[in-house]
Write a structure and sequence with these properties.
heterodimer; A: alpha/beta; 6-stranded mixed sheet; 4-stranded antiparallel sheet; globular; B: mainly alpha; MetI-like fold; 2 domains; about 0% strand; MetI-like_sf (chain B); phosphate transmembrane transporter activity (chain B); transport (chain B)
Chain lengths: ~250, ~300
């Protein structure tokens, strides 16, 4: 699904990602783990080109989505982001109604009939398992929802543009344990139809829900393997030290 | 005063009588702050009282009716009998400051968008200090520039003498530009980063993000800037007086001379004797200005409450 080849990323003089090679399989959860500042979030944000707007960023190498380089000159960043959705660390609903939050993306990309839009909003909210909780309050402000509900709304909002890939940047780290469990279950569920890449600083979360895990250290991929393999019999000594809690 | 700690401890009797040092300090500090506040409150109330007592005198002791003052079209303080209709000035004040806001609001908003969203670095280092500098230029300088640049230009291009409502509005709009820009820039900077990223991540372009997320979210804050600008324009006297022509009538076009509440006060104040009807009538105009200021403050408060929600 996503093939990353010889990717180098510099913030000015500082090299944040070094020679990354990675392939991310379709319809599964790939988790990026590693200590703070290891480059896992930076790599995630190169996948939908959210780093573009940061001044001083320079990128070399290739990132291919379905065989096409997303950094090529003829890639339109808006249509890329329509295909690669993102959920952030802090829930960031717009100060609009629940309905308008979900409808925001579809409205950007074209005019839909009212009935079609209604249907899309419902489908997205159902997919984010939020529909039952909000179906009577679609016109209410999204800011009145709890943190966990807001995060599921952000997932629904991302799903509404019908992406292929969903990036989740520590999307549960600002939530309480119950909301976290809900999002984790939801993520598992979604991985049946979407390719999910998640960054987490919680190793246990990676072990619990991901199919593949990639361990980063100092801007490099140390090890990438099936989650079970990586946690039960890591190949690299540094991986073993990290997952057994000897640093980080 | 500065007893060593050991001595205080060894003399418990003295300790009871003596106020501990930190409490004395607390008390002194509090007294000082309360005193300052008291002075401020007394000053404000005296000013309001003074303006009100003088400004109400024409109605109470000279038999001028409120409706004549508010809606009268003629201002003839030297006439027989003297007539005090302040509607032309009210009209002049409102039309110049609102028109100034109409001109300055889009300019200020675009300037602040440019400084925060499009070129933040240049904005912070060059443009913002530049615009703040505009706020520090004395109003007489604005008036002078208006008189030597804007008025001749208007006289050449449009019918009339150049002085008038439009000249006043243009000068005012430049004067309130810093207020509008600074308030909107602060509002834009305070926007949570997540909102913008959330919109961009859904495939919105920068302009879509600005028009669909940023502006609606910040609307109350942006309006606050505009209202503060109007309030400043409404109270500005000197610069307007220099370019508006000061004719006490309601103008029929933007290029005709007019007068504002403030300009007529500054023009006439020196020519009247304290306590005379004419002098008191000018105080009535000042009272109207004061009341309008209250309204502006109230509107800004309402908008701020909406921001917090």
């Amino acid at each position: 699904m996503i093939e990353i080849e010889k990717l180098q990323l510099y913030y000015g003089e500082f090299q944040a990602l070094k020679n990354i090679r990675l392939s991310i399989p379709e319809r599964s959860i790939t988790a990026f783990i590693g200590p703070s500042g290891c480059g896992k979030s930076t790599l995630l944000r190169t996948l939908n080109r959210m780093n573009d707007s940061i001044p001083g960023v320079r990128i070399e190498g290739r990132v291919e989505l379905q065989g096409k380089d997303i950094y090529s000159a003829d890639t339109e960043v808006e249509s890329l982001r329509k295909r690669v959705g993102m959920v952030f660390q802090q829930p960031n609903p717009f100060p609009k109604s629940i309905y308008d939050n979900v409808a925001y993306g579809p409205r950007l990309h074209g005019k839909l009939k009212k009935a079609d839009l209604d249907e899309l909003v419902e489908r997205s909210l159902r997919a984010a398992s939020l529909w039952e909780e909000v179906k009577d309050n679609l016109k209410k402000s999204a800011l009145g929802l709890s943190g966990g509900q807001q995060q599921r709304l952000c997932i629904a909002r991302a799903l509404a543009v019908e992406p292929e890939v969903l990036l989740m940047d520590e999307s549960t780290s600002a939530l309480d344990p119950i909301s976290t469990t809900k999002i984790e279950e939801l993520t598992r569920e979604l991985s049946r139809s979407y390719t999910i890449v998640m960054v987490t600083h919680n190793m246990h979360q990676a072990a619990r829900i991901s199919d593949r895990t990639v361990f980063f250290l100092n801007g490099e991929v140390v090890e990438a393997a099936d989650t079970q393999m990586l946690f039960s019999s890591p190949v690299d000594q540094r991986t073993e030290d990290y997952i057994s809690g000897r640093f980080g | 005063m500065n007893l060593p700690a050991s001595e205080v401890r060894s003399a418990p009797a003295a300790k009871e009588r003596r106020i501990p040092k930190h409490l004395a300090e607390e008390w002194r500090g509090r007294t000082y702050v309360y005193l300052c506040v008291l002075i401020m409150i007394v000053t404000i109330f005296s000013i309001v009282y003074f303006i009100a007592s003088r400004g109400l005198a024409p109605f109470i002791s000279h038999g001028v009716s409120v409706s004549e003052m508010m809606f009268g079209l003629e201002w003839r303080p030297d006439g027989e009998p003297a007539v005090f209709g302040a509607l032309p000035f009210l009209f002049g004040s409102f039309s110049t400051s609102l028109l100034a806001a109409v001109i300055a609001a889009p300019l200020g908003l675009c300037a602040s968008l440019f400084m925060t969203e499009i070129m933040p670095k240049l904005g912070k280092t060059v443009l913002q200090p530049g615009i703040e500098l505009l706020a520090g230029i004395p109003s007489v300088v604005y008036g002078f520039v208006g008189l030597s640049v804007i008025v001749p230009f208007l006289r050449d291009v449009f019918p009339g003498l150049g002085v008038g409502v439009l000249a006043g509005s243009l000068v005012l709009s430049i004067m309130i530009l810093p207020t509008v820009t600074t308030v909107s820039t602060d509002a834009l900077r305070s926007l949570p980063r997540g909102l913008k990223e959330g919109s961009m991540a859904l495939g919105a372009t920068r302009w879509q993000t600005i028009s669909r997320i940023i502006l609606p979210t910040l609307l109350p804050s942006l309006l606050t800037g505009v209202v503060l600008g109007i309030a400043r324009a409404f109270g500005e006297a000197l610069a307007v007086q220099m370019v508006i022509g000061n004719a006490p009538h309601i103008p029929h076009s933007l290029f005709e001379s007019a007068a504002t509440l403030t300009s007529i006060i500054t023009l006439s104040m020196g020519n009247t004797t304290s306590g005379s009807l004419h002098n008191n009538a000018l105080w009535s105009l000042a009272l109207m200005l004061l009341l309008m200021t209250f309204v502006f403050v109230f509107v800004v408060r309402m908008l701020e409450r909406r921001v917090k929600r």
